[in-house]
Amino acid sequence: MKEKTLVHLNNYYKKTVIGILMSAISFSAFSEEKKIDFLETNWSFEGIFGTFDRASLQRGYQVYQEVCSGCHSVQYLSYRNLSEKGGPEFSVEEAKAIASQFELEDGPNSDGEMFMRSARLSDHFVKPYPNVEASTAANGGAYPPDMSVLAKARAGGADYIYSLLMGYGEPPAGFELDDGVYYNKYMPGNKIKMSEPISDEIVEYSDGTQPTKSQIAKDVTAFLVWTSEPHLESQHKMGFKTIIYLIILITLVYMSKQKVWSRFSSKTKEEDETFDKVERVITEYEGEDPKSFK
Amino acid sequence: MNEEKYIPKSKLGQWFDSRLPLLTLSYHLQAYPTPKNLNYWWTFGGILTFCLITQIVTGLVLAMHYVAHVDHAFKSIEHIMRNVNYGWLIRYVHANGASMFFLAVYIHIFRSLFYGSYKAPREVIWIIGLLIYILMMATAFMGYVLPWGQMSFWGATVITNLFSAIPFIGESITTWLWGGYSVDNPTLNRFYSLHYLLPFLIFGLVILHIWALHVPGNNNPLGIDVKKNSNETMPFHPYMVMKDLFALLLFITLFLWFVFFAPNVLGHPDNYIEANPIVTPSHIVPEWYLLPFYAILRAIPSKLGGVIFMFAAIFILMLLPWLDTSKVRSAIFRPIYKKFFWVLVFTVILLGYLGAKPPEGIYLILSRLATAYYFMHFLILLPILGRYEKTDPLPMSISDPVLSKPGVMDKVKKAASEYEGENVGSFK
């Protein structure tokens, strides 16, 4: 009885400790970044089966080109990426046409001269400013960050970028703002040097989609997620296949393991051994063969 | 399973084996007797070997594309992620592999703490294991610097600055480590070189770790000595190989889930911003697996004191076999130690949580309390428990608990009483 109580107490103790551990872990996980509640959006690229919406990415590229690219570079993206699988999937001709709109310096040529030429598919996106210093100087001392990996470089990712684009507004009473600084609900510190970049109908979509502010923000956010993770779709596809493969393999290995282990010892075998032991002792005690006993 | 001298079957095998006994080694590894009652906490040794090999192989490929220069490091990582065939996969396996490696090593270490695997005659295995752990932390820290993101740069600055706390020669040591007067290109280059070297030192220590294990053999959940070459042990191959493989595949599933579906969740977003010596991030935090030590470092009010306590927190584990004087290994038979074990687990996780928080207010108070408790556990509690704890009776052999499993003995008794027609309760 006493033993049972002890076992019971022990189980109770175990449960308490595990409970504390779990709540500590979840507390730490949740209290970390959840101070700001970002705007909720159902992104098509989220989750195990997430894929990009091609039309949205193409529109997002347009927004980037017409609105953002005046200040923000995406220096790690190449024009060829625009026609690659898993991205906006422009046709190669379209991507070539896009690239040819931009000029960049190349050289030196055989005369040792640098020269200007139009961009090709193999070129990186042309930057709006030659370097960080020029870009900072032209933007009132605030460097407009390169957008290649922006969605991975901000806590909250896509939700953060979307919320930020939607989060401009009048500052609350008593909130001091300098000239050229704007109030944004979702920016850490609520002060941002970028003026509100998008508004209704700031771009004109050729596919008939209504260019509302939130639609534009969604499209450009999706585009930025793709620039940060251009292989996201193949990542998800390969991940799903791999997990299925592993589940099958684990089942087979588990069955093989059980089979191999059954050779050595099974519960019944151990019980048999115990019976044998008992039998032997009884034989010694009684001095007769108790084989019939079994 | 018997340890009699192994003779290869073929003539060629005999010729070779008498010159280099590789076949004998292979035979020994296969026949190595393991206790039959090992549970799944014992599969992490194999998992860790897998982690090390994965890190070396993926790291080898990454090194073919990475450029260790402050102007090109960040760019070359993006090149790997975008342009190298399956570069994203290789890099995500390597980056998450580090976290998985530490997850497995922490389970491995706490398993050892619970079942008393560090006690005689296994002290040397334990100490080699700790050396591996220390090298792992150094390797991981330097690896985190290589992408040259903001956390890389500022993490390197904070950690290398710790050495400046050493009186008199501290500043010179820091300058020597940096190869200049701040964390810069020479620092990145030497970290890359060492990041490539250390895993092979770890590999060598792993061989010694396994060698030292094969002398006394495995501990087991009951912590009592096993009779080798009896029915209490089973050969490593195929029994443990199959069991380890099963556990490894489950581990790989978790691992790849992170790689494919949440590859950046264990890292810090700031490390996707290229290093900038002029802009300091609002919170500089190390990777999650170093956070408990970071919390101890910041809990102590003086810089030098913090450094001393942080290193002491690791090195105190080296003395563990002599601080824990209890002759009973497994916590199963140590009712009080078992409870304190879980309190220690909680304390370490709490320290990890506090390491991610700013060192102020309640967080600082809690870090100090937890740090004090951490040291108290090893320096005060363990010696006292070793002396005064009343341990439960140990079974005679690892087969014994099978006998006392509910059901089996009842069956025997019942059968015997049927046979004898009387109560044989005293029979046991």
Characterise the protein shown here.
The complex is a heterodimer of chains A (294) and B (428). Chain A is mainly alpha-helical and 294 residues long. Chain A folds into three domains: 1-34; 36-73 and 148-230, Cytochrome c-like domain (Cytochrome Bc1 Complex, Chain D, domain 2), CATH 1.10.760; 238-293, no CATH class. In chain A, 50% of the residues lie in helices and 4% in strands. Chain A contains nine helices and four strands. Chain A has a two-stranded antiparallel ribbon. A two-stranded antiparallel sheet of chain A has the order 3-4. The radius of gyration of chain A is 33 Å and the shape is elongated. The mean pLDDT of chain A is 86. In chain B, strands 1-2 form a two-stranded antiparallel sheet. In chain B, α6 (123-145) packs across α7. The model of chain B is unreliable at 424-428 (pLDDT under 50). Helices cover 64% and strands 1% of the residues of chain B. With 428 residues, chain B is mainly α. Chain B has helices at residues 11-19, 22-31, 44-65, 73-82, 87-115, 123-145, 150-161, 170-178, 185-214, 236-261, 291-299, 303-315, 320-323, 335-355, 361-388, 400-403, 408-420; strands spanning 33-35, 233-235. Chain B folds into four domains: 1-30, no CATH class; 50-219 and 251-284, Up-down Bundle (Cytochrome Bc1 Complex, Chain C); 311-397, no CATH class; 404-428, no CATH class. At the A-B interface, α1, α8 and α9 of A face α4, α10, α14 and α17 of B.
